[in-house]
Amino acid sequence: MKIRNYYFWVAGVTNIVIDILSKRAIVENLRIQRTSISIVPNLLNFTYIRNRGAGFSMLEGNPLLPWLSLIVSAILIGIGITKIFGSIWEQLGFGLILAGAAGNGIDRLFFNGSVVDFIELPFLRFPAFNWAFPIFNWADVSINLGVICLLINMFLDRPRQSSR
User: Fold this and answer.
1) pLDDT band for position 146 (50/70/90)?
2) pTM higher than 0.85 for the full model?
3) Quick one: pLDDT at residue 127?
4) Burial of 127 (0-12, 13-18, 19+ CB in 10 A)
5) Between the CA of residue 108 and those of 4, 56, 91, 121, what are the distances in Å?
6) Which among 11, 55, 120, 149 could disulfide-bond with 45, CB atoms 3.0 to 4.6 Å apart, if both were Cys?
7) Is 157 a catalytic residue?
8) Which of 19, 107, 140, 157 does the annotation list as catalytic?
C-alpha cells in the first residue's frame, strides 16, 4: 500500500514530535524562564523564554494568533489529504511548514497563547545596536526549512530555456 504524499506526512509528523519533545525537555530542565545553558560557547545557547508573539514577536498578545497556527495546520492537512504534490521537495516543504504551524499552535493552545522558545545564537548579538537575533524553537526552524524546500522546488521545476 502506497501512502499519498509520503514525505509530506513523514516530515510533518517527525518534526512535530521533535518540536514537542525538545520544548518539553527545555521546560522540564530549565524551570525558570531566562535560564540559559551554553551548548557551544559563543555559538549556541539553550535559553528558555515564553513568546506571546509570532516571528520576531510580531502580533504579540493578539487573541487570534493561537488560532492562526491551527487554521494553517488544518488547511495544510486538508491539502495533504486531497492533493498529490508534484515533487519530493514540495512534499517536504509543505510537511515542514505543517510541523512548524502545528508545533507552535499546540504550544499556544496549551500554554495560554505563548510558545516555548529556546534556541539562541549568541554570535548574532550586536550590543552596539542594542539588537540580538530572536530566540526561536524547532517549529520555527521547520517553517524556514519548509520555505527553503519550496524555493528549491520552484527553481528545479522551472522550464529550462534553450540557448541559441
Assistant:
1) very high
2) yes
3) 85
4) exposed
5) 30, 16, 26, 23
6) 120
7) no
8) 140
CA proximity to 60, closest of 69, 52, 50, 71 = 52
Residues 6+ positions from 146 with CB-CB distance below 8 Å: 11, 92, 93, 94, 95, 96, 97, 98, 99, 100
pLDDT digits (tens, 9 = 90+) for 10-61: 999 999 999 999 999 999 988 777 789 999 999 999 999 998 877 666 667 6
| Strand ranges in 24-156 using DSSP code E only, listed in sequence order | 36-40, 44-51, 115-120, 125-126, 131-132
Helix (H, G, I), strand (E, B) or coil at 119: strand
Beta strands 125-126 and 115-120 are unpaired
Annotated catalytic residue within 19, 107, 117, 157: 117
Contact residues for 130 (Cβ-Cβ < 8 A; gap 6+): none
Q: Is 19 a residue of the active site?
A: no
User: Can you list the alpha helix ranges (DSSP code H) found in 30-87?
Assistant: 65-82
Say how many residues make up the chain.
164
